[in-house]
Amino acid sequence: MNAIPDVPGPGRIVLLTTSHRVAPGLLSWPAWQALREADRVLCADSAHPQLPYLREAGTAVDEGTPTAEELVDACSGGRTVVVVATGEGEPRLTDGLARLAGSGRVRMPELELLPASYDLPGARLLDLVQVMDRIRVECPWSSRQTHKGLAKYGIEEAYELVEAIEEGDREELREELGDVLLQVVFHSRIAEEDPEAPFSVDDVAGGIVAKLIHRHPHVFGDETATTPEEVKEHWLRTKAVEKQRTSVTEGIPLGQPGLALAAKLASRVRTAGLDVPLPEGDGEDPGEGIGYELLALAARAEAAGVDPEAALRAAARVYRDAIRAVEGVGGEDEG
After folding, report:
1. In sequence order, which residues have a C-beta less than 8 Å from that of residue 85 and are 6 or more positions away?
2. Average pLDDT along the chain
3. Could you tell me if 138 and 101 lie in one domain?
4. Residue 306: inside a domain, yes or no?
5. What count of other Cβ atoms lies within 10 Å of the Cβ of residue 304?
6. Domain coverage including residue 134
7. Which residues pair with 247 in a beta bridge?
8. Which of 83, 115, 147 is the last residue of a domain?
9. Among residues 94, 115, 136, which one ends one of the domains?
10. How many CB atoms lie within 10 A of CB 171?
11. Distance between CA 327 and CA 316 in Å, rounded?
12. What positions does the domain NTP pyrophosphohydrolase MazG-like occupy (predicted)?
């Protein structure tokens, strides 16, 4: 009986995708395996960041953009061809392969999509930095902005973030967090251009990382904390050593809203265990008297664990709705 000849299969195409947000050369083991076992490796982008590392590892890479037909022919005889995709993928090539497969006139090779690297958490922040760099250079408005000119936008975005939180709007919350993040990246980009004391977004991030680690010895050190109160004690103690402040009032911005300012002062006094009586007006100035009453209310709210600013905003919303009801408007204001 004659033996049946072993007919080679149609071969295999491996589309290797990589993330530009991960350092070149940091490929997964399956990706390196596929590259080493391939009969041919192709890459359409001669400036692809992976090419130097592939060649250094001994992988021969042919540059150029084959057509779908040429790629199928290259797989004949059971050969494996790996295509190192560009950052946008290879839509022209994959579309061509799909049309070729749909025609039914060609025996198609096996097609495999192999992710060679994955974005790490926070990787999209690199995109934001790159976009901000370009906008700062090319946009007529952004290129002229200063820290002082942008300050008002930081305040506005912070208030809009608070409003999204209080409204419980998750989609709005995501957007407003992005707007606040933009302010941080924008100011950091401007700071790079300072001739005397420049710093970058990496310096900003590095500083807050160091601060968080130092102020969380119960997480990164040998201390222990089992309650939120103990965590706050650690934080305040390490912060006091860092800042070397002589008064608990130092570091409290006086430009913040009045109720928040009063509550913050009361919080510092209570946490430090100081006995400081609340001041009282002499009754001659009505405005002064109301101010002291508001101060006492803010201190009382803080002692009860209530944010007086948030409480007042909630009450103001109810008042707004009552006004609109009397006006016959109805519904909530969208602006």
Report:
1. 15, 16, 17, 18
2. 88
3. no
4. no
5. 9
6. 121-199
7. none
8. 115
9. 115
10. 8
11. 16
12. 145-220
pLDDT digit string, tens, across residues 279-329: 887 767 777 788 999 999 999 999 999 999 989 999 999 999 999 999 987
DSSP for 62-108, please give it: EES---HHHHHHHTTTT-EEEEE-BTTB-HHHHHHHHHHHHHSSS-P
Both structure tokens of 230: 């103990």
Q: Across the chain, which distance is largest between two alpha carbons, in Å? A: 120
3-class secondary-structure state, position 133: helix
On the question of pLDDT at 79 being above 50, the answer is yes
Beta bridge partners of 14: 82, 112
Give the total residue count for the chain.
Answer: 335
Angle between helices 147-167 and 308-327 (to 10 degrees): 70
Instruction: Looking at the chain, list the stretches that DSSP marks H as alpha helix, in order from N- to C-terminal side.
Output: 29-37, 51-56, 68-74, 91-103, 124-138, 147-167, 170-191, 201-214, 217-220, 228-243, 258-272, 286-303, 308-327
Are residues 260 and 309 in contact, defined by beta-carbon separation less than 8 angstroms? yes
Q: Which residue matches tokens 């040998």?
A: 222
CA end-to-end distance (rounded Å), the chain: 86
Residues 109 and 20 occupy one common structural domain: yes
Give the whole-angstrom CA distance, residue 160 versus residue 181: 13
Contact 294, 270 (CB under 8 A): no
pLDDT exceeds cutoff 50 at 1: no
Sheet holding 80-84, edge to edge: 62-63, 40-43, 80-84, 12-17, 110-115
Write the CB contacts of 153 (distance below 8 Å, at least 6 apart in sequence): 183
Residue 154: what pLDDT?
93
* Residue 184 CB neighbours (<10 A): 15
Give the integer Cα–Cα distance in Å for 12 and 39: 10
